[in-house]
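Hey, quick one: can you model this chain's 3D structure?
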Amino acid sequence: NNVQVFTEDGTFLRKFSSVNGDPREIAVDSNGSLYVGDAADLVNVFDKSGNKLRTINGISGDPWGLSVYGNRLAVGNSHDSVHKIRIYDLNGTLIREFGEWGEASGQFKKPISVDYDSVGNIWVCDHENHRIQVFDGDGTFIRAIGSYAESPDLYNPTAFVLDSSGNLIVSDTR
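Sure thing. Here's the predicted structure for all 174 residues.
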């Protein structure tokens, strides 16, 4: 139920309470503020020292995936009843949301991990559709990568990262 901070070599620096007790994904903005998703349908925002700055409430659906790009926070959800990506400003005002339950392009089944790329596109780990979907910053579908039945075959991808060369690295359960 804590957020812990370490140096690059693993030296423990500090820990602080995540407040609501079930922390999920963490994202960091350019000022070093930490955005911590919580199963209580919210995101708590902390400064670098762990002091709570504010709470973004009303994020139904267990906000699991978080990513910051400029002054935007993308939130993915892992709950069975919410299959959306929501975009907020860094103060917590909802700007837009996109997606719904389904298998077509732009639809999701548990969008549990999100990341912005270097130009502001939003990459989404679409867990139960066995793919990664890519959208522009406004939520317009660009492409999908993988599928359970296609090559490359992904099976319930759970996390991914875009490396400095632009490569997509995905973990799945197969």
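One thing worth noting: Residues 106 and 140 are 8 Å apart (CA to CA).
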